[in-house]
Amino acid sequence: MMAVCSFLGHRHIYGHDVQLRLQAAVNHLVEENDSVEFLLYLWKSTEPFYALCLLAALRAKQCAPQKVTLTLVADRLELEQRLADKWTHPLFFIADRLLPLSVSKDRNPLKVLKRTVQWMVKQSTHVINGFYEDLFDRDDFVLNFARNAGVQIINVTAPELEQVILASSEQLPERQRLVFQMRKSGYTQKEIAMHLNLTVSRVQQIEAAVTKNLQKQLDSISSCIPKIPQKLSVCSIFALGDANYKNLCVFSNCIRFLMTRYQIDQFCLEAETVHSGFMFALQQSIPLYHKIPTRAVAWDAGSSELYDLKAEFCPPCDAAESIGGIPAVDCRISTILELMDRSMFCICDLSASAYAQQILAHIPQTRQAVLLDIGKNTALPKSEVLGEWSNSLQLSSIFPEGYILK
Prior knowledge:
This protein starts with a strand and ends in an 8-residue tail after the last helix. It has helices at 18-32, 48-63, 76-84, 109-123, 141-148, 159-169, 174-184, 189-196, 200-224, 245-261, 271-274, 277-285, 309-313, 331-341, 356-366, 383-390, 395-398; strands spanning 2-8, 35-41, 68-75, 97-101, 126-129, 152-155, 234-237, 266-270, 294-300, 319-324, 345-348, 370-373. Helices cover 46% and strands 16% of the residues. Helix 8 crosses helix 9 (200-224). It folds into three domains: 2-157, Rossmann fold (3-Layer(aba) Sandwich), CATH 3.40.50.450; 161-224, Arc Repressor Mutant, subunit A; 234-373, 3-Layer(aba) Sandwich (Rossmann fold), CATH 3.40.50.450. A six-stranded parallel beta sheet has the order 4-3-2-1-5-6, sandwiched between helices. Strand 1 (2-8), helix 1 (18-32) and strand 2 (35-41) form a beta-alpha-beta unit. By secondary structure, it is of the alpha/beta class.
């Protein structure tokens, strides 16, 4: 059985165990189906909740590469404009498909976003939902769209936070509390406006105030809940090949991509990479105000020669580490596998590495490492690919004639 899954949720993250619940839902979906295609909207990958969705899908893909397909969905016109400027997104190196859509003749960004998300839901058999409906998020309209479309909804919301929202609603000012209760009872904004002798725009303003107050309550309560202990978020860098202009540009984009979406606590570099152009690119990509420590890692096979790691690698690195023991194969691949075991993300160039097969075989064993292969040129979208989609995905083929944008 084949499943197609998209994600819905708030821009922000509520609760400290969201990532665990997301990963559990994604893993269960993969286990229960012969194949799963995850649809991810490219322009939403910067938002915290969707960044976690992306991470969960990537981990599932690398643990079951034959079962999982990762498809990036993007607005076709905007994508064409960016590609014309030689723009390359790091996700192009880890996704299986890029799907450009023409879903709206109206270039209003909100309408384009709305119709694109609706199209993704319409193609899905499952939706993983992170919306708390009582927060009246302006984007949660698509959850009702999913219900009406008969899509199976998998909730990753926390029941205890839903109870917190209800309890916090009792502390709202009288007018806000009344609007909250009426909306929860099923009244539309128009019906509330008529009942309270208000304009619809005024009801919308009150709802926005309700959302803001409830979010403050959630944030204050979340800050008091003990956080689940997390391992250091490590990004390892190894087997990168030539430090030419193209590779350095892609490498820098990957570093910035990871830092803007995920909290990277440390960069670990294979010793062979430390004195290359990639180290300079790494230093230039880390903002001065956001210092992230770098560590050189080398294999110590018990040589009798005095090997001063700190003198050799610091600077440019902040620290150096020697891994001892008898390597299973050879020193270099043993170092790489050790780095993979401790990392959340790995950046490498498999096309330039003699250890590509060993690296790919080891990824599922790590259970958490996500591999960004900067040598995966086949994933880059070409102009002819966009041209191929231009005739097959017109507005009328996605939404039937007479479809009304609600």
